[in-house]
Amino acid sequence: MIEAADAAPESAAKMSARAGACRIVRLFSRDELGGALGRPELVHLALADGKLAEAFLAASARLAGLRGLVEVGGSAAEATNGKDGIG
């Protein structure tokens, strides 16, 4: 799951509760996510399991590392620590 880094706290908490064991990537703003799909803004986006999702997670991990944000891994519950990145 991809969630805008600037998502409202209530929205983020609600999606984290529903995400279960899914990893949540929080590296991009609403504008950046929307721009990638031709929309003004986008807060949540899901990728189905598969090669695209694996490649996206790998690229996101590299980006998070370059930005010095957080370590990669963990569940959605662990991703609610308020840090940007991947959880």
Order of helices and strands: EHEHEHE
Radius of gyration: 12 Å
Parts with pLDDT < 50 across at least 5 consecutive residues: 74-83
SSE class? mainly alpha
The pLDDT mean sits at 83
Q: Can you tell me the number of structural domains? A: 1
Figure out the total of helices: 3
| Inertia-based shape | globular
Question: Cα distance, first to last residue?
Answer: 10 Å
Strand content: 5-15%
Number of beta strands = 4
Describe the protein.
By secondary structure, this protein is mainly α. The chain has one domain (2-86). Helices cover 40% and strands 9% of the residues. The strands form 2 sheets. The protein has a two-stranded antiparallel sheet. A two-stranded antiparallel sheet has the order 2-4. It is globular, with a radius of gyration of 12 Å.
List the helices and strands and how they pair.
Blueprint: E1 2-3, H1 9-19, E2 25-26, H2 30-36, E3 44-45, H3 51-67, E4 85-86
Antiparallel strand pairs: 1-3, 2-4
